[in-house]
Amino acid sequence: MEGTMMGFIAPVFGLGAKGNSVAGTGKRGGFGLSVNMTVAANTSSVASESEKEEWASLNAMYSLTSEQKYKAMTLPAAENPFSAKYIAFNESDTSEYSLDKVVYRAKNGGLLDVQHDMDALAQHSPAEWKELFDRRSGRTVWPFGSGVWSKKEWVLPGIPNEDVVSMFEGNSNLFWADRFGKEIGMTDLWVKQCGNSHTGSFKDLGMTVLVSQVNHIIKKQGGIEAVGCASTGDTSAALAAYCAAAGIPSIVFLPADKISLAQLVQPIANGSIVVSLDTDFDGCMKLIQEVVEEYPIYLANSMNSLRLEGQKTVSIEIAQQFDWEVPDWIVVPGGNLGNVYAFYKGFKMMKDLGLTTRMPRLVVAQAHNANPLYTAYKNGWDFQPMVAERTLASAIQIGDPVSVHRAIRALKACNGVVGEATEEELMDVGARADRTGMFNCPHTGVALAVLEKLRNDGTIGANDRTVVVSTAHGLKFTDSKIAYHERKLHQAKGNYANNVIRIPAQSDRVIDELRKRVEL
Q1: pTM of the predicted model as reported, rounded to 2 decimal places
Q2: Which residues does the UniProt record annotate as the domain Tryptophan synthase beta chain-like PALP (predicted)?
């Protein structure tokens, strides 16, 4: 395999015939080129001039022309081109379709999955894929600087680059939760900040893929007049932004009075047709499915497996940020449950292609008021839909998740666990974590609360490397945070509230109040 990609890349960077490199070690929360980008501190001697010249030649991306950079980030033509197609998720259904076909369900009515030609991808060695992904990430070469499109061959290999609709999403940081980890007896706890994205949630990762494919279909064959979704808030924000960027009309169905104002204003600002319906998410989902059956509106919800292809890149990013080592545990909030299967797909793809050697164990965290997967887990995976009760973790207030059987497959394959958190638990643990430097959405609070329970009962070990996926930014949920700290929530007492001190503008009163809280 050394004669394929490494032989192609080496001349661009002045590498030797084998492109030798030394991988960095230690904790790492960002991205960089893997070609000798990490140089160990040498306290015993000073580097020679030849060593300095060699190091400089390996870090010469900045000195390349745009054409050379693009060439360095593009694989040479392979004997078997990369490809992907829809297949039925249910293995007893043999139907399959082109990704250019507007289709949401398999022949027998079940969900679809995107299947890649793994033999074609295996033409390149694990080292070559790692090298390629590392050198693309965080760059500005279109479209590879995106955390999603840096893995383009593993996502949508057949789409032309000019059809991609991207805001350079992904590449989100890993927050080393050192202080909070110590509070709950953990030494290696991390939070993947997927909310640090264009619209403030991980939904951007899937929406860039879906809207890009829609853009490609419209250019190639037409037949789509708009893209629509049902949403608990974050999906509508992502759809509106990406459709606005592409110039494609978007339509969103929202459950009335069940999402935050910050979530509501996003599709309004991006020009979507916003429809507020007197029902819950599950009701909105049924209605949007009826509408797309009758009109040329493309369905953007997670029953559409294209979005999962973008969301699975979170798994690849996590491994990449740990220098291609897989964590012991991944903890993720669960609502419609597509992300659970997406993360599984990403880790499995890496393992199957030899980039990693094992799978992590998955934990799905649900709010007690919307816990159909948790109930199924406790009852031998016997799933029964429920009517979800109101929860402050509004984005996962779903009683009949579309991707439940996808999630169950992933959890069974990874020896996974499902937990739940009450309203008070999710808000209290979220507040405690905020005091260690985070700024959590309620859904991350659910995940952290479940994590603490699993740590307390010994399921997760003190030294297990654990990554909690934070799915949205806390700024989208300031209403519930303010109410918590003002102790105005009927669902939670506010045991860790930090209310604003309101006093007259008098120095003696200020000093008195400060002395109550700080040793002066």
Answers
A1: 0.88
A2: 165-471
